[in-house]
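Changelog-adjacent note: as of this version, every example in the card shows the full chain rather than a window. The one below runs 365 residues end to end.
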Amino acid sequence: MAESGAQIDSLDLWTQVRGWAQALGFSQVGVAGVDLSAAEPGLMQWLQAGFHGRMDYMAAHGLKRARPAELVPGTVSVITARMDYLPQDTPDDWQAAELARLQRPGEAIVSVYSRGRDYHKVLRARLQKLQDRIATAIGPFGHRVFTDSAPVLEAELAARSGQGWRGKHTLVLSREGGSMFFLGEIYVDLHLPRTEATGAHCGQCRACIDICPTQAIVAPYRLDARRCISYLTIEHDGPIDEALRPLMGNRIYGCDDCQLICPWNKYAQRSSLPDFDARDGLADANLVTLFGWSEAEFLRRTEGGPIRRIGHVRWLRNIAVALGNALAALPPGDARRAPLLASLQARAEHPHALVREHVQWALKR
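Full-length structure tokens:
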């Protein structure tokens, strides 16, 4: 890496960086150091407990996640960036409105963050523009951009740099922005002034723990990903545990419950970018419609979005579970059952065993 850190006024540079970041749509930026050794025991305990499930890459990377200077040699500072993602037309009562949708079993629920453009693409492009502006100001320097794309202890870095504190659901919470935001980082070889961490403000509240449908938050600040609906519907590529399927309700991609109930999210901010506005058919779709998508239609409708990464087969697996739960929630003789049954029966002979198994389970509901 370059030795540009000794040739610049770091405080003046940081003032400029904050202005550039705001112009690029970031809500907040901060700076953390690279000594995360205090977080290593907790990381290892989490991995040893198997709470990472089948996300084998987490165990494979081990402590490199907590050692920025090993991941990118020469790193001495980490710039952290927060970007709010609530769509611009989000109503004031959005939390209550989203929770109410859980009570309408025929609706399909995808996490708020996943209804627009893939945040990896948005954040990476804008973080790269930010580092380009820094390079224009000071000349070449060592850097690397991350957007949930490498073994980075993202929440720890965010908390240490003043983006917020770790909530009991393990997400980062901000007094100004709740938790409805994305995080990204730039590892740099520049000596930048550290930004001050904030205190925790959860108090005795345990709303996120109590609302979790699968009780995946096994203790404050401790999440068993193997039970988390976000993990099950996105990261997990095999059959979903039958004991957990009824608890998933109509959530087909991710789960926002712990955020919807959080009091701090009354301060969640709307995005300044149109990228995160919901695409047609994802904010208010019904299960039958989405289950009817062919693979070609699935790929077309999810192009450029985060949902595409799970593929059509897992998409159908997830919706089959939701359809089964909808059948179980409706009384015999209810006219709304017929299209649900017909939709499932149309996929009963699907060529992929994973889909067939979940469809058969749903039909038995």
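Structural remarks: The CA atoms of residues 28 and 329 lie 43 Å apart.
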